[in-house]
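Quick one: structure for this chain?
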Amino acid sequence: MQPLDRLVQKLCDASRKQYLNPYTYLEWPRRIGEDEWCMTPEFISIYGTDLYAGLSQRQRKRLSFYEAVNFFSLNIHGEKALVEGLTQRLYRGGNETITPYLHHFLDEENKHMVYFGGFCMRYADKIYTDRKMAIPRQFAPGEEDFLFFSKVMIFEEIVDVYNARIASDERVAPIVRKINLIHHKEEARHLVFGRDVVKRMFHTWAPQWPRETLQNIRDYLQAYFVTTWKEYYNPDVYKDAALQEPYQVHQRAFSDAACRAHRRAVSGKCLDFLVEHGIFEKGFVV
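Got it. Here's what it folds into:
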């Protein structure tokens, strides 16, 4: 691993060089056409299922719009929690080396919420509800920070696969592609930072944690992985897209073989990282 202060300086320099004004960078179209894709079709949550096969092209594009609203809503909720957690860690003892980059991290996450919220409120007039629940718990030394940065990394690793794919998909509406492209470019720095911090923290603290604590950490992060993915199968999306029995669609889609294969493919790079560094053991399937 390169020295942390050198990595932080490199990321700070890149953030300053590539700074964007979120209020002037995007030109928002007056409306999204019903004939436009707003999500890469292959990344629609029920893609590959019998239900998707039975939809007309018009229904699929309508569903893609609400899937995009859900995807952007998930990002807003994830980044709200991230901003709160990063703010708590600014200038905290022991974080002096990373604090300069935390300022850029916070700035960029706030801008992302401007983009995502701008789309959702302009075109759907709403943001889907956050379904995650925080349960208070006691932490071993080093555990709370490790879990925070690990969850950030897991969430952003999944999101970035979507960002990169949608941004390069010429079938998708230009405004949606551009939002995903902006996010992908800035998240690239966040992911470098996140992987490095998670790796350092685990190698520092894991030897000090009892076996039971380490297993509890693995169980917690694996549950977070599953919970995060379940939010991509939002019954409110299916209801807004006029699909029948939206809660049954949610249950059927999550367990469908094609959907499981999709999750494995998107999660692969992140899971490989977690296994490589001993954070997960081999065999976990989302």
